[in-house]
Amino acid sequence: MDILIIIGLIIAGIILFLIEIFVIPGISFAGIGAFFCLIYANYFAFSNLGNTAGFITLAASAIACVASLIIFMKSKTLDKMALKKNITSTVDNKAEQSVKVGDEGIAFTRLALIGMADINGHHVEVRSIDGYIEEKTPIVVSRIDNGTILVERIKQETTN
Predict the structure, then answer these.
(1) Rounded CA gap, 4 and 59, in Å?
(2) CA 153 to chain centre
(3) What span, in angstroms and rounded, lies between the C-alpha atoms of 40 and 42?
């Protein structure tokens, strides 16, 4: 009867261990339950069956955990659970394609590095290279880098 209790605890611990790793990541009830099942199975073996049976149980539970992990990873179960759909959609960037370096516009929102601007009649997302820019400030496109429109304030020429 003692051996059946130990075997049941080890099997429950392994099942909870696999659930913890592959289904519910993080520290959850399954991980804590797996830890306590495996620890109690080994404690029970040492206290009720002696040191030899305890060390055999310890080795068996360690080998069973590693073997179940390897078997589960090599099985096709993970392939059935895996997401296979590829994302093929793209962001609509027609307005960004119509903007060129040197185009002028007005900051539509405040640019606390990133915000919206009205350039060539299009509302586009821009990034300020001048730092903070208030809304309704005239801006100019200084460069376009990987679809990101970089703008700066239009320098006001002072006549003295």
Answers:
(1) 17
(2) 37
(3) 5
pTM: 0.51
CA atoms within 13 A on the CB side of 118: 8
**Residues 33, 17 contacting (CB under 8 angstroms):** no
Pick the CATH number of 94-153 from 3.30.930.10, 2.40.50.140, 3.40.50.620, 2.40.480.10: 2.40.50.140
Per-residue pLDDT of the chain (160 residues; tens, 9 = 90+): 888 999 999 999 999 998 888 888 788 899 899 999 999 999 999 999 999 999 999 999 999 999 998 888 888 777 777 777 888 877 666 666 778 888 899 998 998 889 999 988 888 889 999 888 888 999 999 988 877 889 998 887 655 5
Two tokens at 93? 């960037």
DSSP string, 124-143: EEEEEEEEEE-TT-EEEEEE
